[in-house]
Amino acid sequence: MNELLPLLEKISSASGIMPSRRKILRSGTIRREASSVLYWMQASQRAETNHALEDAINAADILKKPLTVLFCLYNAYPEAQKSHYDFMLEGLSETASTLSRRGINFILEKGNPSEIIPTKQDYALIFTDCGYTKIQKCWRETISKNLTVPMIQLESDIIVPVEEASGKEEFAARTLRPKIHRKLEEYLIPLKEKNPQIKSSADHKLPELKAGLQFRGGAKNAMERLKLFIQAKLKSYQDDRNHPELDGTSQLSPYLHFGQISPLTVALEIRKNPSESAEAFLEELTVRRELAINFVHYNKNYDSYSSLPDWALKTLEKHSGDKRQWFYTREEFEAAGTHDDAWNSAQVQMMRDGWMSSYMRMYWGKKILEWSRTAEEAFETALYLNNKYELDGRDPNGYAGVAWCFGKHDRPWGEREIFGTVRFMSYNGLKGKFDLQAYIEKNKS
Q: At 210, phi and psi to the nearest 5?
């Protein structure tokens, strides 16, 4: 630790990265005789605006060593589907090429990171990025316990680090918002980037891959989508985001999920175009997205029905015996086989594109609650479908989004059958908000 802290101080001085983004997972002794520094890339799958990568580059320069980036491809990641792997690998192929141009060796190894990384004791020290889900935390905890060299974690996929924003689980956006806003300007700082002084030769080059989806993976495609959104949709975002037939949102969530674009990059680009719509978008990117991360970070039951607030659990239990007009099994939901053409269209959009309008996802989740035998069964069905088909499934935003449909981060509303005081949404309500028929025509099964 005595030599690690001075090194981290030098890195901060060189990079300008806030020390609060950094956490020492393992102190250990720097192996100065080692041939290189390692960055274990897991969540931040990009070569641009990556705080963990830049920390590793600066450490390598100070220690006068080359840098190696390692990604572990784990084919048993919980609930991951072929579409998720295809999108991710398309992005990693681009990342490997970009790192090579920057003089950084990229290695892809197949297997469980918790088994692979502890074998890498021949590096001077190890840097990694930050993950908030159970498996990501478990990997880092297991690995750090089995290392002798130092391991440093950087938060690079969130603007205000989660524990800097709040030291507890927040009740709702209104309780987190002032805490985020107090610190936002400190963290909305462009990241200084540089290439390493000592180049490393590439051992592995990934083939160029195409995911074959509406969404093409990778940092380049993410930036193109961001630029198109700013040029064509940002001015009307505040009005159009709740018009699913217009596709008025940024559709950046898959890229943010796989770390193919930094939320810092997105925020800085949006801020160049000040407007009420830009502020509305930044609210979603900072407060709402970071509320979801706060939820997953502090609530160990984030992926279960028990994560709901007490008032929601009590009111749903109170109305558990209410008569339901419609019942569907998980298989019928998955096949988009309900009586509701709006719901079916949302399910088709999700299965076809790996993405669903956030407004329709709210309706989609509410109706699963209304048409399932129990609220707990509904929660499990919604989470299963979301994680299986959404490219940004298995993500804090997905967990929080599903839980919101059952009362999380919301407040009690007027009491009614089945829902109790959990917010209700209706088919007629959709028709009054946007051109529902146009949306259904775009997403026919």
A: -125, 125
Query: For the chain, which domains are there?
Result: 4-157 (3.40.50.620), 158-192+217-298 (1.25.40.80), 305-442 (1.10.579.10)
Amino acid, single-letter form, for residue 442: K
Q: Cα(179)–Cα(441) distance, rounded to whole angstroms?
A: 43
> What are 350's two structure tokens?
């999700």
- Give the C-alpha separation, 162 to 164, whole Å: 5
Cα–Cα distance measured from residue 379 to residue 84, given in angstroms and rounded to the nearest whole number: 22
Single-letter amino acid, residue 131: G
Strand, helix or coil for residue 401: helix
Residue pLDDT, tens place only, 192-213: 999 999 998 765 556 555 545 5
* Amino acid 215: pLDDT: 80
Q: Which tokens hold the place of 169?
A: 């689980």
Q: Which of 133, 158, 135, 359 is nearest to 239 (CA)?
A: 359
- Going by C-alpha positions, the residue among 122, 148, 18, 142 that lies closest to residue 68 is 122
Q: Which of 188, 140, 167 is nearest to 294 (CA)?
A: 167
DSSP-derived letter for residue 335 is: T
pTM for the structure as a whole: 0.96
Local structure of residue 207 (DSSP, 8 states): P
DSSP states of 311-330: HHHHHHHHTTTS--S----H
CA distance 318 to 433: 31
CB 348 within 8 A of CB 444: yes
In whole angstroms, what is the distance from residue 57 CA to residue 194 CA? Answer: 8
The Cα–Cα gap between 146 and 135 comes to: 17
pLDDT in tens, 339-355: 999 999 999 999 999 99
Contacts of 280 (CB under 8 A, 6+ apart): 237, 238, 241
Count Cβ atoms within 10 A of the Cβ of residue 363 and give its class: 0-12 exposed, 13-18 middle, 19 or more buried. Answer: buried
Q: Residue 154: helix, strand or coil by DSSP? A: strand
Rounded Cα distance between 426 and 367, Å, is 8
- Say if residues 105 and 68 touch (Cβ distance below 8 Å): yes
Select from 423, 156, 404, 164 the least CA-distant residue to 288: 404
Closest CA to 8 of 71, 47, 63, 46: 63
